[in-house]
Amino acid sequence: SLYIEHLNARDKGIDTLRKMLDIEEGREQAIEQLTQIHVNASEWDALVKLYIDLDRAPQIYELLDLTAGDQDDDDVQIELFERMASVAQDHLHDDDMAIEAYEKILEVDSTHEKTAKRLLAFYKERGEHAKAIDAIQIIIAWTSNIEEKIAKHVEIADLYENALIDIDNAANWYAKAVALAPERKEMREHFEMLVEKNDARALLYDVYQAQRCNENLDGEARISIHRVLARTCQQYLNKSEDAISCWEVCLTADEHDMEAI
């Protein structure tokens, strides 16, 4: 304390306190003073190292949590929660504690992509499908890669369809994927299957009607979309004008198309 408070010799004071860690009688006092020094200076690496070197991982996990609660800066809170997660994984080998720390980050910043990716791995492993979907949606919001975006939409749809047995939401997420890549036949066919299973004709109408003006579609995709839309409008939605318009597109492509005729 003399070095730090009166002699402006902070490093010497810290060095003296560290030497006291080897003396049982003064150890707890030295830990307390070193903790205060590192917290006051936001020296988080040094703070964690102090406790890890003393084999006190549970205590530093709790201390980081308490310290984060005293911070007003979101970035500092996130930094401390990330260190909590690292302590939980690397030293306590406790996934539950790591997940708890990562989820605290999302309480501070519900759009934190790096945390969402870390939590997604845990949620998948544990079969926590609803939480996995929430994490994937955060990732989707950040990605600018169209292929990744499509894949994540399909991943959510598959979780709804096969894990949560929620065909309605599965169809909705496949609809979003088809809207991103309507040229993909296999994806369209799966979407159409879900529509059939859930009688979601209005959803199919909205998705395919929006694609009618898509000039980037190849011939196969364009005709297939118009054909399915024509059937849907004619047989299920009582939209005869739309049906006629779609059948006419099919006939323009093939004047011998008997279904269209």
Key terms for this structure?
261 residues; 0% strand
Overall description:
The chain is 78% helix and 0% strand. It has 261 residues and is mainly alpha-helical. The longest helix is centred in the N-terminal third of the chain and has 19 residues, at 74-92.
Low-confidence stretches: 1-7
How far the N terminus sits from the C terminus, by CA atoms, comes to 95 Å
Helical amount: over 70%
Contiguous helical run count: 15
The structural class is mainly alpha
For this structure, the quaternary state is single chain
Main beta sheet: none
Overall pLDDT confidence? 92
Run of helices and strands: HHHHHHHHHHHHHHH
Query: What would the principal axes of the Cα set say about the shape?
Result: rod-shaped
Counting DSSP E segments of at least 2 residues, the number of strands comes to 0
What portion of residues belong to β-strands? Answer: under 5%
Kindly provide the radius of gyration, computed on alpha-carbon positions and rounded to a whole number of angstroms.
29 Å
Topology:
Layout: H1 2-5, H2 10-20, H3 27-40, H4 44-53, H5 57-69, H6 74-92, H7 95-108, H8 113-126, H9 129-142, H10 146-163, H11 167-180, H12 185-198, H13 201-211, H14 219-237, H15 240-253
Question: Can you describe this structure in just a few lines?
Answer:
The chain is mainly alpha-helical and 261 residues long. Helices cover 78% and strands 0% of the residues. Helix 11 runs parallel beside helix 13 and helix 14 packs antiparallel against helix 15 (240-253).
